[in-house]
Amino acid sequence: MSKNKYTIYHNPRCSKSREALGILEEEGAEIEIIKYLQDIPTEEQLLLLLSKLHLKPFDIVRKGEKLYKEEYKNLTLNDHEWIKVMMENPKLIERPIVVKGNKAIIGRPPSLVKEL
Fold first, then answer.
1. If exposure means fewest CB atoms within 10 Å of the residue's CB, which of 1, 6, 44, 98 is most exposed?
2. Residue 68, Cα to own-chain centre: how many angstroms?
3. pLDDT confidence of residue 3
4. Residue 107: which CATH number?
5. CA torsion, points 2, 7, 72, 76, in degrees to nearest 10?
6. pTM of the complete model
7. Which domain holds residue 13?
8. Which residues form the catalytic set?
9. Is cis: bond before 96, omega within 30 of 0?
10. Residue 43 pLDDT more than 80?
C-alpha cells in the first residue's frame, strides 16, 4: 500500500471496521475517518461511494440487521428509495467502506483493504 490518502467509513463498535482501520494504520497510510453513524453521508456522498464501489444501493444494505429483517426485507424499493432508507438508518450501510482516489471497497474481510 502506498502512503496515499484513504477514507474509511467507520463504525468503532464493529470488529471488522476496527480491523480494516488497523491494517491502514499499520501501513502508515494517511487516513480520514468518517464515523458514518454520526456524520451520516448525504445522498450525493452515497451516490459517489456507490459509483466508486461499482454497486447498487441495495448491494450495500446490511441484510443481517434486525431493522432490515423487520422493516425492509419484504419491500421492493428502487435505488433512490434505498438511498433514503440508508440516510434515515445509517446502521444499515455495510461497513467498513474504504476509499482511495476513484476506487472503493467494502472491507469484508478486512484484508481486502490491502488490495486497494
1. 44
2. 16
3. 53
4. 3.40.30.10
5. -70
6. 0.92
7. 5-115
8. 14
9. yes
10. yes
